[in-house]
Amino acid sequence: MAIDPRGADLKRLLAEDPGGPVVMLNLLRFAEGGRESYDQYAAALRDTFLPRYSAEIVYVGDGGTPLVAEEGQDWDVVLLVRYPSREAFSRMVADPEYQQVTHLRSQALTEAVLQPTTPR
User: Fold this and answer.
1) CA-to-CA distance for 13 and 10, rounded, in angstroms?
2) Mean pLDDT across the stretch 2-24?
3) Which of 104, 116, 117, 111 is nearest to 46 (CA)?
4) Three-state SS string across the chain, please?
5) What is the spatial distance between Cα 8 and Cα 10, in angstroms, rounded to a whole number?
6) pLDDT tens across 58-86, in order?
7) What does pLDDT average to over the chain?
8) Which of 54, 78, 82, 107 places its Cα 20 to 30 Å from the Cα of 23?
9) Cα 82 to Cα 103: distance, rounded to the nearest angstrom
10) Could you read off the pLDDT of 40-55 as tens digits, one per residue?
11) How far apart are CA 27 and CA 21, in angstroms?
12) CA geometry: angle at 74 spanning 68 and 77, to 5°?
């Protein structure tokens, strides 16, 4: 299952850029014991990287039992993060210091969705 964006994913993100801010939808499914590792990653993201790239958490919440979904489409956490631009997001994930903490996210998750959204 996909967990982390790859270089081709980031190129496509930038190529499809309509301009302006982007809100990244994160749907997260944790591995056994992964919540603790993700919390360490989230602390670094919140305290260091989001301020550095002028981004902010819009919403974070634990997933409940789905009302409408196919079996296996439930998520442990839903997270919305607003970035001033797709370029800012791309710069953040390429930041060498950020790269030093991404293993915490990768090892915490069994599956993830990371989808850019734009205001309507």
Assistant:
1) 5
2) 90
3) 104
4) CCCCCCHHHHHHHHHCCCCCCEEEEEEEEECCCHHHHHHHHHHHHHHHHHHHCCCEEEEEEECCCCCCCCCCCCCCEEEEEEECCHHHHHHHHHCHHHHCCHHHHHHHEEEEEEEEECCC
5) 5
6) 999 999 998 998 888 899 999 999 999 99
7) 94
8) 107
9) 22
10) 999 999 999 999 999 9
11) 20
12) 125
Instruction: Kindly state the tokens that stand for 29.
Output: 């499914």
Q: Report residue 4: phi and psi, to 5°.
A: -115, 145
User: Domains plus CATH for the chain?
Assistant: 23-64+73-117 (3.30.70.100)
What's the rounded Cα separation, in Å, for the pair 85 and 70? 33
The torsion of the CA quartet 38, 13, 87, 112, rounded to 10 degrees, works out to -10
Residue with tokens 């301020």: 51
Strand 56-62 and strand 77-83: pairing?
antiparallel
Tokens of 90: 């791309």
